[in-house]
Write a structure and sequence with these properties.
The protein has helices spanning 23-30, 67-75, 97-106, 143-154, 165-169, 202-220, 222-233, and strands at residues 4-9, 34-39, 53-54, 64-65, 83-94, 109-114, 119-120, 130-133, 187-188, 191-192. The two termini are 41 Å apart. The chain has two domains: 4-154, Alpha/beta knot; 170-233, Orthogonal Bundle (Trp Operon Repressor, Chain A), CATH 1.10.1270.20. It is elongated. Strands 2-1-6-5-8 form a five-stranded parallel sheet, with helices on both faces. A three-stranded mixed sheet has the order 3-4-7, with no helix packed on it. The protein contains seven helices and ten strands. The longest helix has 19 residues, at 202-220. With 234 residues, it is α/β, with parallel strands linked by helices. The chain is 32% helix and 19% strand.
Length: 234
């Protein structure tokens, strides 16, 4: 297998089926650039009811995902090297574009662990190399964050996007937000395309785009602007 293998441990594997028809991502799977496998911990439960959750020790609301079926599901996954196992959790480090790039470039296999219910048994964390969050909010499970990672990683794999240069110039690829884009018509409802973009002067266009990147980042994401300035100083 030459493509990136992605394995998802999830109680709702059917949630990932739409990815096969999702534009360039679906075509990447069809072309073998990546392949997706799902593993349901319920298939590894040992009791007659296929139970995967239980009440928390010490009391409290909700149910907790049991460790045994999750460990069994992960241990049944074929191992490729290098491999990275990611745990979807709101306690994880916020996802960054650099993470997607790192996983896309340096690994043959990604394993994504999706929690559910009130939470998961703390021992499940020992399976993961990294814990990942989409932000400071809580969802009903880790499936949406996992799908976001799959989308973000697969689109970076060679052969997925028809114009690779577009990946270099987009927001967050170099620490800045992307410059504005325009297409025809030149005038729409009183809003005009900037004259410089119609000038044919490629040097002036490049300078304008760089200025726009700086301005947008300063205004919309001052945190990114500060971090980018620090990198330039180094």
């Amino acid at each position: 297998m030459s493509g990136l293998r992605i394995d998802v441990v999830t109680l709702v594997p059917e949630a990932f089926a739409p990815l096969a028809g999702l534009g360039v991502i679906g075509r990447a799977f069809a072309a073998g650039i990546a392949e997706l496998h799902t593993h349901n911990p319920r298939d590894f439960a040992t009791d007659r009811y296929r139970k995967v959750d239980d009440e928390p020790y010490g009391g409290g609301a909700g149910m907790v995902l049991k460790p045994e079926p999750v460990f069994a599901a992960v241990e049944a996954i074929p191992l490729l090297s290098p491999r990275r196992t990611l745990l979807m959790t709101p306690q994880g480090r916020p996802l960054q574009q650099a993470d997607l790039q790192r996983w896309a470039e340096g690994h043959r296999q990604l394993v994504l662990l999706c929690g559910h219910y009130e939470g998961f048994d703390e021992r499940i964390r020992s399976l993961a190399d990294e814990e990942v969050s989409l932000g400071d909010f809580v969802l009903t499970g880790g499936e949406l964050p996992a799908m976001a990672i799959i989308n973000g990683v697969v689109r970076l794999l060679p052969g997925t996007v028809g114009t690779p240069d577009s990946l270099v110039q987009e927001s967050h690829s170099a620490g800045l937000l992307e410059h504005p884009h325009y297409t025809r018509p030149a005038l729409f409802r009183g809003m005009a395309v900037p004259e410089v973009l119609r000038s044919g002067d490629h040097g002036a266009i490049a300078r304008w785009r760089a200025e726009q990147q700086h301005q947008r980042t300063r205004e919309r994401r001052p945190d990114l602007w500060t971090a980018w300035q620090a990198l330039q100083a180094d």
